[in-house]
Design goal:
6-stranded antiparallel sheet; elongated; 24 strands; 317 residues; mainly beta
Length: 317
């Protein structure tokens, strides 16, 4: 599901396979320098998704001089098109790390900075992404993200033929054909998301769960719309819930939009990715295999955050 590469300034890294719809590319910089370069030709550092033929499918030009981000495209044998621009507006902080993400979604590239969607850029060239490039103007001696940048590619959708796949209605538990193996991924995909909290007296709580064969809750992901939190926990068949681990769900989900939640089954922990971003790592509390998956909500609730059914797939991608 996750591939990580380092891209030196001025280089293009070829990908082992073309990106597919739903993939997320995160450009991760350890430090950010907002002082513009003194080049007479202007300050311009760029993050690029390119085709195998060197077409610039999306060119993200970050210009410190006027604190703007300029988006464009260019075929290998053509000229740059019309520029589309948005302002920094505090997206980058001098001396701090930065994360710029590009999500492939249908005919668009979704550009986010620090997890906040900043721009939807319509695809202009109908080719697949097969490379990533980090560049700056030829006469520049500095770049906003330094001499290299890390790029992480996350697959939010399962491969075309996953090892296991099924639809899971709310309130149901599905027994797996085989236990989830180490380094396998569990893909939960919902066609829509509703952020309006249920008014049940029992409280709003939608959950995705990995269970042992005997019913131990190895990973309980509880999404609580009323207070915008996601709670992670575990519980044995003969014991109570453990200590809750919480994160804020603010800006993670988009009302009315699809949601992808992926769990990586590591040897000693679960990594939880939501819409392509690693949101939490939950250390395992039981040395048991996951053999069941449950999609639940509190008794008395009539709505939940995700669709019913949701699509579930398991594969070592």
């Amino acid at each position: 599901m996750a591939t990580t590469v380092t891209i030196p300034i001025g280089d293009t890294v070829a990908l082992s396979s073309a990106l597919r719809d739903g993939d997320v590319v995160s450009f991760i910089a350890e430090s950010t320098t907002l002082k513009p370069d003194s080049s007479p030709n202007g300050d311009n550092t760029s993050l690029n998704l390119v085709s195998g033929d060197d077409d610039y499918l999306v060119h993200i030009s970050i210009r410190r001089g006027n604190q703007t981000v300029v988006l464009n495209s260019r075929s290998a044998d053509g000229n740059w098109g019309s520029e589309e621009t948005f302002n920094f507006d505090g997206s980058f902080v001098d001396g701090s790390s930065s994360v710029v993400t590009v999500t492939l979604k249908g005919s668009n590239f979704l550009i986010a900075i620090e997890g906040k969607l900043r721009y939807t850029y319509a695809r202009r060239i109908d080719k697949t992404v097969k490379g990533l490039r980090y560049a700056r103007n030829g006469d520049m001696t500095t770049a906003i993200f330094g001499d290299s940048i890390t790029a992480q590619i996350i697959h939010t959708q399962p491969p075309p033929s996953p090892g296991q796949s099924f639809s899971l209605p709310i309130g149901n538990t599905h027994s797996l054909k085989s236990a989830v193996a180490t380094d396998e991924f569990i893909y939960f995909n919902s066609s829509t998301t509703s952020l309006t909290a249920d008014t049940s007296s029992g409280g709003d709580n939608t959950s995705l769960n990995l269970l042992s064969g005997d019913g131990d809750f190895l990973l309980h992901i509880s999404i609580r719309r009323a207070n915008s939190t996601i709670v992670f926990n575990a519980r044995g068949v003969t014991s109570g819930w453990g200590t809750e681990e919480q994160i804020s769900s603010k800006d993670i989900f988009q009302d009315g939009e699809p949601t992808s939640l992926v769990v990586k089954n590591k040897s000693s922990a679960f990594g939880i990715y939501i819409n392509g971003v690693l949101r939490h790592t939950f250390s395992k509390r039981f040395s048991l295999d996951a053999r069941q998956i449950r999609y639940g909500r509190n008794d008395g609730m009539t709505t939940q955050i995700f669709a019913s059914p949701i699509d579930v797939a398991i594969d070592k991608n």
